[in-house]
Design a protein that fits this description.
This protein is α+β, with helices and mostly antiparallel strands. The protein contains 7 helices and 4 strands; from the N terminus they run αββαααββααα. The protein has one domain. The protein is elongated. Keywords: Membrane, Transmembrane, Transmembrane helix.
C-alpha cells in the first residue's frame, strides 16, 4: 500500500498547489471556458460541505473535522480489510482508496487552513466545485465498481467478517 499512500499524497499536493496559485494569482478572475457549460469562477465556500452548501447552512468546524477524521479512518480500514480478503490487487480498490482519501484529506485541509473550500470550476448553472470534489466522487465511484468486480466476488477470505478481522488486528 506504500504506492497508494504516495499517490494520495501527490493528489493532495496537486489540489492544494492549484488552490494556492488561484488564491495568489487569480482569485478575482472569472473566465468562461465553454459558454453556458464550463467556467473558471473562484469562490470561497465557507459552508464546509456539499450538503451544507445546498441548504445554505454553516456547519460547525469541530463537527466537520470529526466527521472528516472518522471518514478517513473508515476509508483506510475498509480498503485494508478488502485487500486482506482479496488475493489480487484491484485497480478499482486502489483508485478508490487514493481518490477518496485524497478528497477527504483535502477537505480537512480546506476546513482547517482555508476556512472552507476554494471552489473554482463552474458547471452549467448548478454549482461551483474544485479538484477535491472530483477526487471524492471518482473515489466513491471506484469503490462501488470494486463491489461489482470479479476480484471482489472471488475474494478468498469471504468467511472473515469485518468484526473478526478488526478484533484480530487489535490483539
Amino acid at each position: 500500500m506504500k504506492k497508494q499512500w504516495i499517490i494520495t499524497g501527490l493528489l493532495i499536493a496537486l489540489d492544494q498547489l492549484i488552490k494556492a496559485v488561484i488564491w495568489n494569482l487569480a482569485k478575482d478572475k472569472h473566465i468562461t471556458l465553454i459558454p453556458g457549460i464550463l467556467r473558471f469562477e473562484p469562490f470561497q465556500n465557507t459552508n464546509l460541505n456539499w450538503f451544507a452548501s445546498m441548504a445554505n447552512v454553516v456547519m460547525p468546524v469541530f463537527i466537520m473535522v470529526i466527521m472528516q477524521l472518522l471518514i478517513a479512518a473508515g476509508i483506510v480500514l475498509f480498503c485494508k480489510y478488502q485487500r486482506y480478503k482479496s488475493a489480487k490487487v484491484n485497480l478499482w480498490l486502489d483508485m478508490g482508496f487514493c481518490l477518496a482519501l485524497a478528497g477527504v484529506s483535502c477537505s480537512f485541509i480546506d476546513v482547517v487552513f482555508w476556512g472552507g473550500s476554494l471552489d473554482y470550476i463552474g458547471l452549467l448553472d448548478w454549482f461551483i466545485f474544485d479538484m477535491k470534489d472530483v477526487f471524492l466522487n471518482a473515489g466513491w465511484i471506484s469503490l462501488v465498481l470494486w463491489f461489482y468486480s470479479k476480484d471482489y466476488k472471488a475474494s478468498e477470505n469471504n468467511s472473515i467478517t469485518f468484526k473478526s478481522w478488526i478484533s484480530n488486528r487489535c490483539k
